[in-house]
Amino acid sequence: MKTPDPERTAQACRTYGALLRAYPASFRRDYDDILVQHFRDEYRHALASGKRFPLLRFWVFILLDFLRSLLMEVQEEVVMMVKKNFYVYSAIAAGIFSPMMFFFRGAKYNYIDHVLNIPYWFQILTHALFVGFGALALFGIAKATDSHFIFQLLSILVLISAAVMLPTPIFVGRGTGIVMSELHLNEDHVAPYIFLGYFVLTGIIAIVALLKRKWLPGVTLLMYFLPIPINIVGNLLQFDFLFLVYGQPNWYSTLYIIFTGIAWFVIAWWLSRENKVASLPSVLEAA
Amino acid sequence: MKDNIEKLLPLSAAVFHILLSLADGERHGYGIMQEVKERTNGRMHLGPGTLYGAIKRLIHRELIEEVYHDPEPGEETRRYYRLTQFGGRVLRAESARLEELVRQARMKRQLPDIAEQVGGQA
Question: What is the ipTM of this complex?
Answer without folding.
Answer: 0.85
